Amino acid sequence: MSADGVLAELRALRAGDLPTHGGRTLAYVYDSALPGLDELAASAHALAASVNGLDPTAFPSLLRLENDVVRTAARLLGGDDRTVGTVTSGGTESCLLAVVAARDARPDVERPSMVLPETAHAAFHKAGHYFGVRVVAVPVDPVTFQADAAAMAAAIDSSTVLVVASAPSYAHGVVDPIADIAAAAAAHGVRFHVDACIGGWVLPHGPDVPPFDFSVPGVTSISVDLHKYAYCPKGTSVLLHASADLRRSQYFASAAWPGYTMLNSTTQSTRSGGPLAAAWAVLRHIGDDGYRSLALRALESTRVLREGIAEIDGLRVLGAPSSTLLAVAASRDDFDVFTVADEMKARNWYVQPQFAYRSSPANLHLTVTAANHGQESELLADLRASVKAAVEAGPVAVAPEVLEFIGGLEPDSLTPEEFGGLLAAAGMTGDTGLPERMATVNTLLAAARPALRERLLVEFLGALYS
Question: Rounded CA gap, 81 and 340, in Å?
């Protein structure tokens, strides 16, 4: 195919995706609405795409770029001359590396564990699964969804190698009591990681936000994503450590083979320089004043939306969010938030369904960005109309026998036939893929206990990639 033909095919495929610009997709993507930023990032990416970050002595330009990016993040987050860091591929890799660094720094602990609030990002459960670190998930306040510092302190024992808290948590946008948890971790001589992946580039500019960064004694590492509110292209995050001594156990080296001695700062070996160069260019172009302006726009938009949602009959915002994330639940039971999500999609908005978990009911997640500033009235009007339509439709009805069938399934013994039956019940058969409206699917998933839901989604993912 010609180059033009290949690109035309790709554009046609992309036409079926959710929009990444314009503030209509309130999850997964982050839009600054700054003109020319995409073009700058793409040009910078192209200049370094073929460069390999595996060996910084072979490609010193990447070493300079990474040090510049880390220095910028450290300065923003209360670091000093001792602060060091690493650019990673995203928030999950930053969290994975924080966990493995804590584990490997304590070879004396035979069965290591980490203490985290149950609202901590699932990336830490992934890290525990990968690296054999037992997760001790501590219940949070059932109303505010904020971590319970006293309960977390009580959960720390001789096996604890890491304590984790969020600034803010993804599900509810709530900042945990960082100073109190840091003090507890320090009193036990345990590392304390602050997951600021989604809030680290916003909270420093927000009003009345308690300290959450390296200015807090006891904070030993922080993760902050550049492809979120630093508005860089996908594929860049930063993991900061308070000192080089704390970072050392993150590195991997192996001379136990006849090739070059492998030396890696991240889970990857070969790393394209493209994402790093794009992030470096965007950071330099927007600058400190630009980021403050973008953060204030997103925070103001979040405030307007939060106040507007409170005035919509039937909706409520969960917890007391202090960043740019909102969790919106139903305040009565004559409609279903999953139907609201479908109605919003019909009006060209994507809001992310979140399932009930302990005291957190089913809700809709909104990630607000600078691109939403100025369009709050339209979003609120469509949300109000979506609730009205959901009330008229009534709660999603699932046949009792289907719910009974789901309740009787065992995750470890789920057969292809049983999975096929569930797909058929949800209206997903053959090559039809996902139905246009997802309320029934989400209701079925909500009826499954978490372990079964995990298995069902794993099977579905496998069916997609076949």
Answer: 50
Give all strands of the β-sheet with 113-117 in edge-to-edge order. 84-88, 237-241, 221-225, 191-195, 160-166, 113-117, 134-138
**b/e map 52-69, b = 16+ CB within 10 Å:** ebbebeebeebeebbeeb
Task: At 165, give phi and psi (nearest 5°).
Answer: -145, 170
Cβ count near 464 (within 10 Å): 8
Query: How far is Cα 47 from Cα 53, in angstroms, rounded to an integer?
Result: 14
pLDDT reading at 421 higher than 80: no
- 314 φ/ψ sector (left φ>0, alpha ψ -120 to 50, else beta): left
In the predicted model, is pLDDT for residue 432 greater than 70? no
Dist. CA 93–CA 238, nearest whole Å: 9
Q: Comparing C-alpha atoms, which of 182, 162, 119 is closest to residue 365?
A: 119
Residue 354 CA to residue 12 CA, distance in Å, equals 30
Contact 418, 455 (CB under 8 A): no
Q: Please name the helix (run of DSSP H) or strand (run of DSSP E) that holds residue 116, with its range, or none.
A: strand 113-117
- Report the distance separating Cα 414 and Cα 60, nearest Å: 52
Cross-strand bridge partners of residue 84: 241
pLDDT, tens only, 121-141: 999 999 999 999 999 999 999
Contacting residues for 221 by C-beta, under 8 A, at least 6 apart = 98, 101, 191, 192, 193, 194, 239, 240, 241, 242, 246
